[in-house]
Amino acid sequence: MATYQKRGYKPKAQEEIEEVIQENSTTAEVFTSLDDTASKSEAWVSKNQNIILGVIAVIAVGVLGFLAYQQWVQKPYEREASNELYYAQRYFDQALIAQQSQDSLFSLALEGAEGKYGFVEIAEQYSGTKAANLAAYGAGLSYLHLGQFEQAVNYLSGFKTDDVLMQALAFGALGDAQSELGDKQAALKSYLSAAAHSDNEFSAPRYWFKAGVLAQELGQTGSAVEYFKTVADQYPNAVEASSVDALLGSLQAVE
């Protein structure tokens, strides 16, 4: 019996062959396109070879220059600044424990003596070094002890360190200087920064307490209660905790 095929009918094997041919053709086009792109890239690199090498050379020189600067300039500079700082810091430490002549020792820490720089000159002469940053902190504290509050604010407001406790103490000292100058809003902000910056039994309750006192003076009763409660609840063994109960009682009576 004769078998007839419909017009346009293709055997399955033939369809598969055509699909493979079509796929191979598409793949060939992709590789051709990639070859063209690669050829263009090679041509561009070849044309701009001198520029590329120049850029690489500039980067290499920059990296080597930076490493050389760190090794032969910055490190010796840091050591020199640290050596100078040692003498100023020694006068400052002596002033803290001295029974007499405290002001003279703080002045020596600031101004230097016997051919050695004090905090002020170290901060200026070695700007950008870690020693200069610490010298600014020492200068701010020294001026605070000497009652020169504007100078204290100038030095302490620019001090920054990764040491959380030292930074908290710097914020607190800044608040003390601002409070002495009558800038109570700024002082309150500094005390809050000091209290929040380092959660420890030494500095945090002190500055929460000072923030509470200032908030009370500024008529911010609710905030004062909050700060005093923080001392009472979170730092019950702190020296300041023994003083907040009476203060809370009087403030809550007002509320």
Walk me through the structure:
The chain has 255 residues and is mainly alpha-helical. It folds into two domains: 52-160, no CATH class; 182-255, Serine Threonine Protein Phosphatase 5, Tetratricopeptide repeat (Alpha Horseshoe). It has eleven helices and no strands. It has helices at residues 12-47, 49-97, 102-111, 119-125, 130-145, 149-156, 164-180, 184-197, 204-217, 221-234, 241-254. Residues 1-10 and 57-74 have low confidence and may be disordered.
Oligomer: single chain
Structural class: mainly alpha
Task: Output the radius of gyration.
Answer: 36 Å
- What order do the helices and strands follow? HHHHHHHHHHH
Strand content: under 5%
Roughly what percent helix? over 70%
Number of strands: 0
| Total DSSP helices | 11
Largest sheet: none
